[in-house]
Cation transporter
Amino acid sequence: MPCCSSDACASTTGSSHRFRRVLWVVLVINAGMFIAEIAAGMLAGSAALQADALDFLADATNYAISLTVLGMTLRWRAGAAWVKGASMGVFGLWVMGTVIWHAMHGSVPHAPTMGVVGTLALVMNVICLVLLTAFREGDANMRSVWICSRNDVVANLAVLLAAFGVFGTGTGWPDFIVAALMAGLALHGAGQIVWAATREWRSASSMTIPAPGATK
């Protein structure tokens, strides 16, 4: 970590009042957008919107986990980050299954709804990303929060492209393709988070093992 390598320093940074306030703000934004976007996605028949809505739900849950482990030891924070990475991977696999289902049924989503809701989601996620950027160089738990937000902005841009594609082609394939790309992005981000969390977990564990011959 750039500021220092001690667990105490990282814990102090993660427990800052500013970071806690920011987490509460982005948690509320993501929970609200999940409700709005899942309803719009179902009404529009859009796999991409439904995938993005579930991403909002996953992020809201992850932010709640981050709030829970603030101030705890590096091992606890690394464990929380590992859980978040694993859940992101499950989300990616679920989205891939949704894409296959919609493709098999030949669904054609409502492009205007995708555009309006996708734009709103993009604005909300840009706000979250700006708020979280200051914490992107922290421990695995803090980095995982920023990675989730960064992925969301990319996903929202892709949803808007899908809306234009559906409108222009009159088919659902742009929606399916974008949803599949979102699943791939989620799986990639999950790998990053799990790898960093595993390294920090091992580092924290090694610090608790006494050296050979050391007195207890």
